[in-house]
Write a structure and sequence with these properties.
About 60% of the residues lie in helices and about 10% in strands. By secondary structure, the chain is α/β, with parallel strands linked by helices. The protein folds into three domains: about 160 residues, Rossmann fold, CATH 3.40.50.300; about 90 residues, Helix Hairpins, CATH 1.10.287.1770; about 150 residues, no CATH class. α9 packs across α10, α13 packs antiparallel against α17 and α15 packs antiparallel against α16. InterPro entries: Fe2_transport_prot-B, Fe2_transport_prot_B_C, FeoB_Cyto, FeoB_GTPase, G_FEOB_dom, Gate_dom, P-loop_NTPase. It holds the Pfam family FeoB_N.
C-alpha cells in the first residue's frame, strides 16, 4: 500500500440505492485509508478512500445513496453533479441482485450520463435463496458494461470488481452506451430540443450530455430548468410550450411516459437475463415482520428493544463487567478508570517531572489540573458514546431501525412529523450534533426545521453523564438507578411530544409529509462496518465536543488558580 512510485490516479465514484451494501463494499475497497467530511457547502457526509494496486492509485468517492438522479433531493443533486462535473474514470454502481428490477432504474440514469460504468451485482446469495438466477453475461451484453457478481458481506467478488475497474479506467474494456427508445413522438421532441440547445448556444454552457438535458427538460427537472432559464429564459418558454403540446398529443404527462418507457425497458432486460426457479415463499423477513410490524406488538417490542439498549449503555457506566474483573484498583467503571486512574497516574508523573526540572508551580498545576485533567474528562466520555453508536449501528445494519421509523409514524404525526424523523431524533440520544445533521434525510424544509427544534430536547450523552452522577449519588441499588434513568428518558419523551404538538399547532400548521420508505430485508450486521461507523462518529464527537470541554477545563483552572495578584500560592 506504499504510495511511492504511483504512476496513475483514477477517480472511482461508488453509487447505488440505499440498503444495497454500499457501506460494506466501500470499506472492503478502501480499508482504513478513508477520510470523512462533508460535501462542499452541504451537511451531507462525504467519504473517500483509496487503494494502491500495481503503482496505480484508485481514489474511491462514496456518493450518497439514491433511488434515482432526478434532483428531487439534495443527495440526488450531489450524486449527479459529481458524475458530470468531477468526471470520474469509472462509476461503480452497486445493485441488489435480489431486487434487480427496482435497482436498474438508477443504473439506466447513470448510463445516460456516462458509459464508464462497472456494475457490482451484490447480494447474490440472497438472490439464490429467493430462487433468482441471473445470467450475468447476458446482463453485461445488454447494458454494455462489465457486471461482477458479488457477496460483499463475505468479501466474495471484490478482487474481480477491482480488476474490472482497473481495466475500464485504463481503456482496456470498452463500454458502450445504452439508448432507450422513448417512442416516435418523444424522440422527435428530444431531437427538436437538442437543436434548440445547440442553436441558442446553451449547449456550450452546460457540462451535461445533450440527450440527457433534453430528457430532463421533458421530465421537468427543476435544477436544469433553473440553470437554462438563467442563460436563456425565452428558450425555456418554447420548451414548456413544446412539452404541453406533446402531453396533449400523448394524453398523459410526459415525465410519466418517460418513466414508464424506462420500466418497460427494465422488464425486457429482466425477462432475458433473469430466471425465477421457484415460487416465492415466505422469507425470514416476512415472518419477522408479521410480529415486529404487528399493530399491537410493534410498539411494545420497539420500547423493549430501546429500553434494553439503554440498560446496556448504563451497565457500561455503572461498571459491569469492570467491577468484577479489576476491583482491586478501586475503579468500578470505564469513565472513572480513564479519568481518575489512568490520567490521574499520568498527571502525577507529569507533575513530578515538571517539579524536578524546576518548572514554576502555576505551570505544573496548569498541566496536571487543567490540561491533563481536561483530556481525561474528554476521553472518559468515549466508552459511553462508542457503546451507544455500536448499538444504534447494529439496529440500523440489521434492518430494524427502518421498521422503528415505520412503527413510530403514527406517534410522530401527533406533533407534525412522519416516521422518518424518528431516526434523527434517536441519534440525539448519542449526540445532538449528528442528530441535527441527520435531519437532511427529511424532504421538506418544514419537517427539517421542526426536527432540529425538537433535537435540543433529546438527552444526549453529555446530559446522560450528568444524569448518571446525580442518580448514582442519590440512589444506592442498581435496580433503582436503572428505573430512575428510564423514567428520566420517558419524561423527556413526554416533554418532546408536548412541545412538538405545541410547535405543530402554533408555528407549523401544514400537514406533515407522508412516509414512503423501503424496509430492507433483515440480515446479519457486518461487525466491521458497525465498528468503523461507531469509531468515526465517536471520534467526531470527541474532536468537536472535546475541544470545547478541554478549553472550559483550562478556563476553569484559570478562574480557580489565578487571582488579582497573580497565580495562587496553593
Amino acid at each position: 500500500m506504499n504510495s511511492e512510485g504511483v504512476v496513475d490516479t483514477y477517480i472511482i465514484a461508488v453509487a447505488g440505492n440505499p440498503n444495497v451494501g454500499k457501506s460494506t463494499l466501500f470499506n472492503l475497497l478502501t480499508g482504513s485509508r478513508q477520510r470523512v467530511g462533508n460535501w462542499p457547502g452541504k451537511t451531507i457526509e462525504r467519504k473517500e478512500g483509496e487503494r494502491i494496486i500495481d503503482n496505480v492509485r484508485l481514489k474511491f468517492i462514496d456518493l450518497p445513496g439514491t433511488y434515482s438522479l432526478s434532483a428531487l433531493s439534495l443527495e440526488e443533486i450531489i450524486a449527479r453533479r459529481f458524475i458530470v462535473e468531477a468526471k470520474p474514470n469509472v462509476v461503480v454502481n452497486i445493485v441488489d441482485a435480489s431486487n434487480l428490477e427496482r435497482n436498474l432504474y438508477l443504473t439506466l440514469q447513470i448510463l445516460e450520463l456516462t458509459n464508464n460504468v462497472v456494475i457490482a451485482l451484490n447480494m447474490m446469495d440472497l438472490a439464490t435463496k429467493k430462487g433468482i438466477k441471473i445470467d450475468v453475461k447476458k446482463l453485461s451484453e445488454i447494458l454494455g458494461v462489465p457486471v461482477i457478481p458479488m457477496v460483499a458481506i463475505k468479501g466474495t467478488g471484490v478482487e474481480e470488481l477491482i480488476e474490472a475497474v482497473l481495466k475500464v479506467s485504463k481503456g482496456e474494456i470498452a463500454c458502450r452506451s445504452v439508448k432507450i427508445d422513448y417512442g416516435r413522438e418523444i424522440e422527435a421532441a428530444i431531437a427538436e430540443i437538442i437543436g434548440m440547445l445547440v442553436k441558442s448556444g446553451v449547449a456550450d454552457e452546460l457540462p451535461y450530455p445533450l440527450r440527457w438535458i433534453a430528457l430532463r427538460l421533458l421530465e421537468g427537472d427543476r435544477e436544469i430548468v433553473k440553470a437554462i432559464r438563467e442563460i436563456n429564459g425565452d428558450l425555456i418558454a418554447k420548451i414548456e410550450e413544446l412539452k404541453r403540446n406533446l402531453s396533449d398529443a400523448l394524453g398523459d404527462d410526459v415525465d410519466v411516459i418517460i418513466a414508464d418507457k424506462r420500466y418497460i425497458f427494465i422488464e425486457e432486460i429482466v425477462k432475458v437475463a433473469v430466471e425465477k426457479s421457484k415460487v416465492a415463499e415466505l422469507t425470514i423477513t416476512d415472518k419477522l415482520d408479521r410480529i415486529v410490524l404487528n399493530r399491537f406488538l410493534g410498539l411494545p417490542i420497539l420500547v423493549g428493544v430501546f429500553a434494553l439498549s439503554f440498560i446496556i449503555v448504563f451497565s457500561v457506566n455503572i461498571g459491569f463487567p469492570l467491577n468484577l474483573l479489576i476491583p482491586e484498583i478501586g475503579e468500578y467503571n470505564l469513565a472513572s478508570l480513564i479519568s481518575d486512574y489512568i490520567f490521574g497516574y499520568i498527571s502525577e508523573v507529569a507533575s513530578s517531572y515538571l517539579i524536578s526540572i524546576g518548572a514554576p508551580s502555576w505551570f505544573v498545576s496548569l498541566v496536571s489540573d487543567g490540561i491533563i485533567a481536561g483530556v481525561g474528562a474528554v476521553l472518559s466520555f468515549y466508552p459511553l458514546i462508542l457503546t451507544v453508536f455500536i448499538l444504534f449501528g447494529l439496529l440500523e445494519d440489521c434492518g430494524y431501525m427502518a421498521r422503528a421509523a415505520f412503527i413510530m409514524d403514527r406517534v410522530m404525526r401527533k406533533f407534525g412529523l412522519n416516521g422518518r424523523a424518528f431516526m434523527p431524533l434517536m441519534l440525539g440520544y448519542g449526540c445532538n450534533i449528528p442528530s441535527v445533521t441527520a435531519t437532511r434525510i427529511l424532504h421538506r424544509w418544514r419537517d427539517r426545521l421542526l426536527s432540529i427544534l425538537l433535537c435540543s430536547l433529546i438527552p444526549c450523552q453529555a446530559r446522560l453523564a450528568a444524569f448518571i452522577i446525580i442518580v448514582a449519588a442519590t440512589f444506592g441499588s442498581f435496580t433503582a438507578q436503572v428505573l430512575v434513568m428510564l423514567s428520566l428518558y420517558v419524561l423527556s419523551l413526554v416533554l418532546l411530544v408536548f412541545v412538538g404538538s405545541l410547535f405543530n399547532k402554533v408555528l407549523f400548521k401544514e400537514e406533515p409529509s407522508s412516509l414512503i420508505m423501503e424496509l430492507p430485508p433483515y440480515h446479519r450486521p457486518s461487525l466491521r462496518v458497525v465498528l468503523w461507523h461507531a469509531e468515526e462518529r465517536s471520534k467526531h464527537f470527541i474532536l468537536k465536543a472535546g475541544t470545547v470541554i478541554l478549553l472550559v477545563s483550562v478556563f476553569m483552572w484559570i478562574l480557580i488558580s489565578w487571582g488579582p495578584a497573580g497565580p495562587a500560592s496553593t
